[in-house]
């Protein structure tokens, strides 16, 4: 069956990714400049920029609205001996990946958790019956055939053509039964929800060929992704609980207005998530350039949520991914057993697009009841109830308003570069949405932070 991992599903056609040079992280040296840099946001992109400039001897202040660092990297440690990553989880491909290199530099442990190997996945139908090998193979062949044709079809596609329309057109010209085609279309929807955190009717078809990826194993952090941001944040001047409301910028510098007062500097690097920029709660004076405002409007902010269950025992076997077809409203289609590395009976369901938004409208009890009903279809009525539950609601989060960006219907291939371009000599922009090759990823956010720090340093970007 097709893979469900983010790395495999984010792109249909991947450009070759080259190894990238990772700067050494050290303590700050003697001041190289009298300029003060304000970094807005203590996610991975903001911390990466701040750390590089701090190491180079610049005066840097990081302004963060939350009461913690990390942004959309968030390790919850409320379960004893079970750190749970409620934001980013995987390093998607370690070969040449700067996040993997940075983790090695910090000496942070990672373990392999490859989820795109179809031999380690198990697929069930709507009634909880495991699909036979012949049935799975027929679907996999049709899906692979459709995907190859789709990758060709979307090259240079019009901005208004959606991924769903493109796939429907491809399937119309293929063999297979109507039921098989309907299943392939459903799998494609789950693919888009997982990879781009959006529904296929909202995704621009051309965007399926956007970007690059790294090869090699996928790995996770047994002790949490948060270790990485904690190391980057160490020793920096970070102002938590300072929600930014207004940013003034001009030739004389910048002034950032927050709920806790004003801060002045010579340059600001804005790393606010695209969802926050789209909401418009931060005022820019003067207004942002027309091209940047257009990019903010056209690009989409996807929603990707997790429901993580702690059980008394493992009852789900050895599969790396457990998938079910034709689930109600797309909920509970993909389960990821975390016991492979957490050494505890933890089961995580991932949802993107409409299913993720539906999850946000449910209470934790409703979520548990609905999840258990689906799990009992597969594993029987005698399975135990969970002893713990974590649920994310990233769209409701005022400091995120979503999970990661995607190429929305109507978006242009130039939008990410317009979003990344400086608004002025004193106002710069970073974040995953600004990276043309690695959007939607931690490594894209990290690289964008380094890019803007190099811009401040006067280095090529």
TrEMBL record:
<dbReference type="InterPro" id="IPR001613">
    <property type="entry name" value="Flavin_amine_oxidase"/>
</dbReference>
<dbReference type="Pfam" id="PF01593">
    <property type="entry name" value="Amino_oxidase"/>
</dbReference>
<comment type="pathway">
    <text>Plant hormone metabolism; auxin biosynthesis.</text>
</comment>
<keyword id="KW-0732">Signal</keyword>
<feature type="signal peptide">
    <location>
        <begin position="1"/>
        <end position="26"/>
    </location>
</feature>
<keyword id="KW-0073">Auxin biosynthesis</keyword>
<protein>
    <recommendedName>
        <fullName>Tryptophan 2-monooxygenase</fullName>
        <ecNumber>1.13.12.3</ecNumber>
    </recommendedName>
</protein>
<comment type="similarity">
    <text>Belongs to the tryptophan 2-monooxygenase family.</text>
</comment>
<dbReference type="InterPro" id="IPR036188">
    <property type="entry name" value="FAD/NAD-bd_sf"/>
</dbReference>
<dbReference type="InterPro" id="IPR050281">
    <property type="entry name" value="Flavin_monoamine_oxidase"/>
</dbReference>
<dbReference type="InterPro" id="IPR002937">
    <property type="entry name" value="Amino_oxidase"/>
</dbReference>
<keyword id="KW-0560">Oxidoreductase</keyword>
<feature type="domain" description="Amine oxidase">
    <location>
        <begin position="44"/>
        <end position="457"/>
    </location>
</feature>
């Amino acid at each position: 069956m097709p893979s469900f991992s983010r790395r495999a599903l984010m792109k249909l056609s991947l450009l070759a990714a080259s190894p990238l040079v990772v700067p050494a992280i050290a303590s700050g040296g003697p001041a190289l400049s009298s300029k003060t840099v304000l970094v807005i946001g203590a996610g991975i992109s903001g911390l990466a920029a701040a750390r590089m400039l701090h190491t180079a001897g610049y005066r840097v202040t990081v302004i963060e609205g939350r009461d913690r660092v990390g942004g959309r990297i968030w390790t919850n440690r409320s379960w004893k001996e079970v750190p749970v990553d409620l934001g980013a989880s995987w390093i998607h491909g370690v070969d040449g990946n700067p996040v993997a290199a940075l983790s090695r530099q910090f000496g942070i442990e990672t373990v392999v958790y490859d989820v795109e190997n179809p031999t380690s996945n198990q697929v069930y139908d709507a009634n909880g019956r495991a699909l036979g090998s012949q049935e799975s193979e027929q679907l996999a062949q049709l899906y692979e055939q459709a995907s190859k044709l789709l990758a060709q079809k979307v090259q240079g596609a019009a901005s208004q053509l959606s991924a769903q329309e493109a796939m429907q057109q491809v399937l119309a010209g293929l063999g297979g039964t109507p039921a098989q085609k309907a299943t392939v279309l459903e799998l494609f929807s789950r693919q888009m929800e997982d990879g781009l955190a959006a529904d296929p009717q909202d995704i621009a078809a051309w965007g399926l060929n956007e970007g690059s990826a790294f090869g090699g194993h996928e790995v996770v952090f047994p002790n949490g992704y948060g270790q990485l941001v904690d190391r980057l944040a160490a020793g920096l001047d970070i102002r938590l609980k300072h929600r930014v409301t207004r940013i003034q910028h001009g030739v004389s510098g910048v002034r950032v207005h927050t709920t806790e007062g004003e801060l002045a500097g010579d340059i600001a690097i804005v790393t606010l998530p695209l969802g926050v920029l789209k909401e418009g709660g931060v005022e820019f004076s003067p207004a942002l350039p027309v091209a940047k405002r257009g990019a903010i409007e056209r690009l989409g902010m996807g929603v990707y949520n997790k429901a993580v269950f702690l059980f008394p025992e493992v009852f789900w076997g050895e599969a790396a991914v457990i998938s079910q077809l034709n689930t109600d409203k797309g909920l509970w289609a993909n389960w990821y057993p975390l016991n492979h590395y957490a050494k505890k009976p933890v089961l995580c369901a991932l949802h993107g697009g409409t299913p993720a938004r539906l999850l946000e409208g449910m209470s934790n009890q409703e979520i548990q009841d609905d999840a258990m009903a689906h799990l009992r279809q597969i594993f029987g009525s005698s399975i135990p109830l969970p002893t713990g539950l974590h649920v994310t609601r990233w769209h409701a989060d005022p400091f995120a308003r979503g999970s990661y960006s995607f190429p929305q219907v109507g978006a242009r291939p130039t939008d990410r570069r317009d979003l990344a371009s400086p608004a002025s000599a004193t106002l710069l922009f970073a974040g995953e949405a600004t990276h043309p090759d690695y959007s939607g990823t931690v490594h894209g956010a990290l690289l964008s932070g380094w890019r803007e720090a190099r811009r401040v340093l006067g280095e090529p970007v």
